[in-house]
Specification:
31% of the residues lie in helices and 35% in strands. The protein is α+β, with helices and mostly antiparallel strands and 147 residues long.
């Protein structure tokens, strides 16, 4: 399996197709939106075998000591087999010497479980609408958790 960085238009088109399978509609971006984000510093990585996208994640390097990640996903046919943990291990290996920050929805039980398992701390909540389940929960993992 290989890690690849999304760099050209073909990669972005593949990413958009992957997102359609991996994320709910309200969390999907268009090709144009991705291109705008990539120009402003978003980095997107995919885990692939010879032919298929297995998973992906995105990072934004906002401050010297902070890495924001998003777009964390495993192909629906491959979930529950340790791939999500494999992606998380990779993120921690690459960026775990900085504060890792991400947000996920309150009702995303699986992602919240994965974050807690990997020593992320619930930082704060961000209201999105009147629906109590439709709000972001923000999570941080500190470099000291590596030991
Ligand atoms: C979240 C996601 C990446 C997990 O990937 P995965 O390959 O299924 O995860 P893994 O098999 O590696 O499991 C890792 C951990 O996730 C949690 N988990 C996985 N499946 C779960 C389930 N059905 N119920 C509860 N927790 C679960 C557990 O903590 C698990 O650790 P454990 O096996 O020691 O219990 C995947 O479900 C996904 O792509 N979801 C849709 C996209 C998404 O919501 N991304 C997060 C956006 S912030």
């Amino acid at each position: 399996m290989n890690w690849n960085k999304v760099i050209n238009l073909l990669d972005v088109c593949r990413l958009v197709e992957f997102d359609k399978k991996a994320h709910p509609l309200h969390d999907q971006l268009t090709v144009d939106e991705y291109i705008t984000w990539l120009k402003s510093g978003l980095e997107v990585f995919s885990l692939t075998d010879d032919t298929h996208w297995i998973g992906s994640y995105q990072i934004i390097r906002k401050d010297e000591d902070k890495i924001y990640f998003a777009g964390f996903a495993v192909h629906p046919d491959l979930r529950g087999q340790g791939r999500g943990q494999e992606i998380m291990d990779h993120i921690i290996k690459e960026f775990g010497h900085k504060n890792l920050i991400c947000k996920t929805r309150e009702n995303n039980i699986i992602m919240k479980s994965l974050l807690i398992k990997n020593r992320f701390f619930r930082d704060h909540d961000e209201l999105v609408s009147e629906d109590p389940n439709d709000h972001w929960t923000w999570w941080t993992r500190f470099p000291s958790s590596n030991t």
